[in-house]
Specification:
Length: about 140
């Protein structure tokens, strides 16, 4: 049987630190400022990735999101269903991975890399919702 002093110590712990299974408090990892990107840094990276895609593939509409160290990109003109994710640590200064992945998305929809040609899109196969079909 535990001593009365030990029981009082456990009851005095805040509920967030007590896990309920043992008498030890839950230890949480402290995050450092350099480990977390600020919203401003995420927004700036989104703008850079978007600018690279628009420069490489003009006329296309790209949706870019940066959250918790992961970049998510989708082509909104086609259907928005296909996209790619990259880790921030995978990027180089030229962002060649972003350009290559954007080109791969266009090729999945059987579109040419480069400037968007509306004549090519009008003749493409579509599904029941009117969105472009893609190769899986």
């Amino acid at each position: 049987m535990p001593s009365p002093n030990k029981i009082q110590i456990i009851k005095a712990l805040p509920p967030k630190l007590f896990n309920g299974l043992s008498s030890k408090p839950v230890m949480r990892r402290r995050t450092k400022v350099r480990d977390v990107m600020t919203r401003y840094q995420c927004h700036e990276l989104e703008k850079k990735v978007h600018h690279v895609l628009i420069t490489a593939y003009p006329g296309h509409i790209w949706g870019v999101n940066v959250h918790q160290g992961v970049i998510t990109v989708k082509n909104m003109f086609t259907s928005g269903a296909m996209g790619f994710t990259l880790g921030i640590m995978q990027l180089d200064r030229k962002m060649s991975q972003v350009v290559n992945a954007g080109g791969e998305i266009l090729e999945r929809y059987r579109l040419k890399r480069g400037r968007l040609q509306f004549d090519d899109i009008l003749g493409k196969e579509r599904d029941f919702q009117g969105k472009l079909k893609y190769d899986a």
